Amino acid sequence: MSEFRNEFKNILEKYDSARYNFFKWRFESTFANKLVMALVFACLTGVFAQLRFYLPYTPVPVTGQVFAVLLSGVILGRWYGGMSQGLYAVLGVLGVPWFADGKAGMEILTGVSGGYILGFIAASLIIGWFTDMYVRSRSFAWMFSLMLLGIAVVYLFGAVQLAFVLGVDAPKAIELGVIPFIAVDLYKALIASAIAAAVAPRSAYGNEVDSR
Known about the structure:
Layout: H1 2-28, H2 31-49, H3 65-94, H4 106-109, H5 114-133, H6 140-166, H7 170-177, H8 182-199
């Protein structure tokens, strides 16, 4: 029994060391490496965008994008998490067909779902900032709160642009662009929080405020 406990302890120590080393490497890595990681997450967002379906009462599709957005801030940190979503938006406008339904172009960014894409950038920046700056933010409870905050930011950007494009008031924009997605996005937030809490180290790897 003691051998099993020792083996299990060794596995946990190796796991803790691996996740710390990755985040330390990410923090200290070169711009080129960080840019590649940002591009990888932009591609992931594009892949998850194709996991979509439409509800009969809203013009905005339900997609898997938010899942990639939430994790991009945790894995890449504030600037490069935000950059990953910025790359997703810019390259999509330039012609990469990775918006929902395999679409591309400026008309998507200026259309009914464009606000959500802009919200992806802000959400990833916010989640990444807290993850980078506070060790205590890496617990499941904190991560879940951050994921909910990120989703709320996406909703804010999305609903504002939806109201402007469709010419509807705020309650109608919330009815069309927020309420239909809450249940699914809560599920995404739970899964993303569990993954984030599992991979993010519980020790400082950079300039964390609460470790000084």
